[in-house]
Amino acid sequence: MSLTVVRTTLADCEQICRKALTKVGLPATAAGIVAENITSAERDGCASHGMFRLPGYCESLRNGKINAEAVPVSSFPAPGCVVVDAGGGLSLPARNVGLPLLVERARSQGVATLVISRAFHFAALWPDVEALAAKHGLVAFAFLNSKAFVAHAPGGVKPLYGTNPFAFSCPRLSSDGGLSEEPLVFDQASAAMARGDMQLAARSGTPLPPGAALDANGEPTVDAAAGLQGAQLPFGGHKGSSIALMVELLAASLGGDAFAFEALASDSGDGGPTKHGELILAIDPGRCGGQGREAFLARVETLMTHIEAEALEAGASGRSLRLPSQRRFQNRKRTPVEGIEISEDLYQRCLNLAGDDP
Fold first, then answer.
1. Annotation marks residue 266 as catalytic
2. N or C end of the chain: smaller count of CB under 10 Å?
3. Which of 48, 74, 242, 253 is flagged as catalytic?
4. Annotated catalytic, 48?
5. What string of DSSP letters covers 79-107?
6. Is 158 left (phi over 0), alpha (psi -120 to 50) or beta?
7. Crossing angle for the helix pair 28-43 and 326-338, nearest 10 degrees?
8. Is the dihedral of CA 195, 233, 161, 170 positive or negative?
């Protein structure tokens, strides 16, 4: 089934999101942060975390599940530890409070952690780590759990874990010897497929890849709608389950937040985000390892250029070999000029949320 699409601009996307979010009571500053995040996902070709998320944000703000007026509060339980209590509000404003503090602590301690607790997270995870590498030269990890969607493997048939994404970023050198604006970044679910991608597949009638989901009877399915009613599967069988379990423990336990099965039990089912935890870890290569930042970055480039050389060979042979995030960076250059495509029904729904006429 093909969907009719609308081509629009990134500026239009951000304006629609900002208006819709403020209309349901989110203060202007927080609305701007979330609108920018949604737009950056569209800019980079990540439709599952772009305007597709706006109706869920708006519904959870409208019904009061998310505390629109929450003010993040930071604390420092140890020299290398930052905790930001989101107060039942959205995670993105809390993240923006915590990241500068994390950078400061990583610089002074060599390694630092940021725990974000009592937060509603509904966004892609790569923005939480990319700037740490691109702007500050830090190596960073992020771990996030969600409500239960994914069965344990082997043997499980009921949702137990979240899709539990984890992100990683590593700085790279630019051609002038400074920090590259395009570091190595990846953001991936521990599920075989991101939840948003499965929802988009259900809308378009696109079959799932084998091994992505079980139906409500615990049987394997490639029907996205049936998979949404059943359970997703981790990637790599028991290996993905181990990573999902690790993410669950890191993201939820440190801040005293809900595990996936607890978040599922308490969720209102409004289609919006659930309240859970996040851990971000930052390492300053200039302070750790004993060789200094320049030597570290030189070693990084030795590996990256080796991979890129093989990618050129692969391309000459008709094969595709690329580093993580390369496609996003390519989209980042293209979409400001060419615009973005949104399904017509989603675009109209977002216009309605913003109070705009088609």
1. no
2. N
3. 48
4. yes
5. TTEEEEEEEEEEHHHHHHHHHHHHHHHHH
6. beta
7. 110
8. negative
User: Which one is catalytic: 128, 187, 197, 257?
Assistant: 197
Average pLDDT over residues 206-231: 96
**pLDDT confidence of residue 11:** 98
Say how many C-beta atoms besides its own lie within 10 A of residue 45's C-beta. 16
Among candidate residues 12, 44, 49, 169, the one labeled active-site is: 49
C-alpha distances (whole Å) from 302 to each of 110, 200, 295, 296, 307 are: 23, 39, 11, 10, 9
Question: How far apart (Å, rounded) are the C-alpha atoms in residues 237 and 166?
Answer: 17
Q: Which two three-digit tokens encode residue 6?
A: 């609308």
Give CA separation, 248 vs 41, 132, 240, 290, in Å.
Answer: 24, 23, 12, 32
Distance separating alpha carbons of residues 105 and 99, to the nearest angstrom: 10
Report the alpha-carbon distance of residue 94 to residue 221 in Å, rounded. Answer: 38
Q: If you average pLDDT over residues 31-53, what whole number do you get?
A: 97
Helix 10-23 and helix 344-354, axial crossing angle in degrees, nearest 10: 50
Q: Is the peptide bond before 171 cis (omega within 30 degrees of 0)?
A: no
pTM score, two decimals?
Answer: 0.94
Beta bridge partners of 142: 167, 280
- Contacts with 334 (C-beta within 8 Å, 6 or more apart), sequence order: none
Amino acid at the residue 52: F
Pairing outcome for strands 73-78 and 81-90: antiparallel
Q: Given pLDDT bands bounded at 50, 70 and 90, which one contains residue 203?
A: confident
- Go through the domains of the chain in sequence order and give each one's CATH number: 5-63+331-354 (1.10.1530.10), 73-191+234-288 (3.30.1370.60), 295-325 (no CATH)
